[in-house]
């Protein structure tokens, strides 16, 4: 009888812990300005062109590979491929919603998806107060590469569809309200990567599924670690 009561109490606790998920803000359903072109990619507040580089601290894309860290963009088969090579940025990024001031360090409006491959030490910080994201794409996001990347913003990675990863390194999302917000969080391969998320509200919020295949996962969340809405 005692064991049965404990089992019922545990089940009630689990059900109760899931209730707040239904009232979490739909962070993946952020509004975008209608004036943003359908083939746009912005990095660090700069609109990128096909096969161009953005040096660390740069304010305009260049055609030649710069010395030091950089971001590189190439459009292929309707997809946007972004390479971050020892790239760092600190600022307010691109404002994709002028009504509420929401912004992202990397923003994509490419229907074929956003593919980010990072190498080396990368650090991306969005300094905007409220509505700040690191990566925000209207369609799929794929993260891959061997790197140590630090993402510092209200929202780490946001997509209304799928976030796919194949990481052999460490990705740290710090000082977030929500770490990762998407429909599905999936993996391409069983990697040796490490994921660390520190969020005041929820570390990972997904609508349908979450797959975590990392060598090490460290989550510190003020309210919820992983939530399916």
Secondary structure elements and their pairing?
Blueprint: H1 2-18, E1 41-43, E2 46-47, E3 52-55, E4 70-76, E5 79-85, E6 88-91, E7 94-97, E8 102-108, E9 114-126, E10 132-137, E11 141-152, E12 155-158, E13 162-167, E14 170-187, E15 194-210, E16 216-221, E17 224-228
Parallel strand pairs: 5-9, 6-9, 8-10, 9-11, 10-12, 11-13, 11-14, 12-14, 13-14, 14-15, 15-16, 15-17
Antiparallel strand pairs: 1-2, 1-8, 3-4, 4-5, 7-8
Structure commentary:
With 229 residues, the protein is mainly β. Helix content is 7%, strand content 55%. It contains one helix and 17 strands. It has a 17-stranded mixed beta sheet that branches. It is globular.
**How far do the termini sit from each other?**
34 Å
Strands, count: 17
Radius of gyration: 18 Å
Low-confidence region ranges: 1-29
Sheet with the most strands? 17 strands, mixed
Along the chain, the helix and strand elements come as HEEEEEEEEEEEEEEEEE
Defining traits:
229 residues, mainly beta, single chain, globular, disordered N terminus
């Amino acid at each position: 009888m005692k064991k049965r009561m404990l089992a019922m109490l545990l089940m009630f606790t689990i059900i109760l812990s899931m209730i707040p998920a239904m009232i979490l803000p739909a962070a993946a359903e952020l509004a975008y300005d209608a004036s943003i072109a359908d083939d746009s990619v912005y990095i660090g507040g700069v609109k990128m062109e096909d096969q161009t580089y953005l040096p660390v601290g740069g304010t305009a894309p260049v055609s030649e590979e710069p010395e030091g860290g950089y971001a590189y963009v190439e459009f292929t088969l309707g997809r946007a491929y972004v390479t971050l090579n020892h790239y760092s940025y600190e600022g307010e990024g691109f404002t994709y919603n002028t009504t509420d001031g929401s912004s992202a360090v990397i923003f994509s409006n490419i229907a074929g998806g956003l593919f980010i491959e990072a190498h080396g030490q990368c650090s991306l910080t969005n300094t905007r107060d409220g509505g700040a994201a690191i990566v925000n794409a209207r369609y799929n996001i794929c993260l891959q590469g061997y790197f140590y990347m630090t993402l510092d913003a209200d929202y780490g990675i946001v997509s209304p569809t799928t976030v796919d990863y194949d990481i052999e390194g460490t990705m740290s999302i710090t000082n977030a309200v929500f770490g990762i917000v998407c429909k599905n969080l999936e993996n391409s391969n069983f990697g040796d990567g490490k994921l660390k998320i520190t969020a005041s509200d929820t570390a990972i919020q997904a609508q349908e599924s979450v797959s975590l295949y990392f060598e090490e996962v460290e989550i510190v969340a003020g309210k919820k670690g992983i939530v399916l809405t």
